[in-house]
Amino acid sequence: MKAEIKDSVGNREILNNSKTAFLCSRQVTSDIILKCYDWAIEQREKGICVISGFHSKIEKDVLHYLLKGKQPIIVTLARGLKKNIEPEFKKPLEEGRMLIITPFEKEVKRVSEKTSIIRNQMMIDIADDVVVGYVKDKGNLQNILNSANKKIIFL
To answer: How far apart are alpha carbons 12 and 98 in whole angstroms?
Structure first.
């Protein structure tokens, strides 16, 4: 079952770009963290559109590096849209280089394991390429990746 975008804020034209999904398990080693940072800086410098939930600590760090660039970014929520947009998102939204999407209605207010799985599946479906910083053995992310019909690149 493919999830569809139910709500969005920002420049929907970004969906027409080639997109690279970035996913990473919450628990990572220090060498993986550095690889993820280097990867994020490389994507920023190349102007690559990255789609991610930017939910885990490492994903938030990757977003920090991406926000310093000019490339398009797609933030995918595992809940409905919030009333208030994060302050760091205002400028990229105004510049037309950010899109925030969700497969959920506004009434879904909490992130759960189930909503995260749906969000991650939608990101993989939308993306042209999938990059994984780290995947925990036998975790939810591994299950999603095993069923993905795309080439997966591991950092």
So the answer is: 9
CATH of 7-154, one of 3.40.50.450, 3.90.25.10, 3.40.50.300, 1.10.10.10: 3.40.50.450
Contact present, 15 and 47 (Cβ < 8 Å): no
Whole-structure pTM over 0.85, yes or no?
Answer: yes
pLDDT in tens, 84-98: 999 999 999 999 999
From the list 151, 152, 114, 111, the residue with the least C-alpha distance to 23 is 152
Q: What values do phi and psi take at 154, rounded to 5?
A: -100, 135
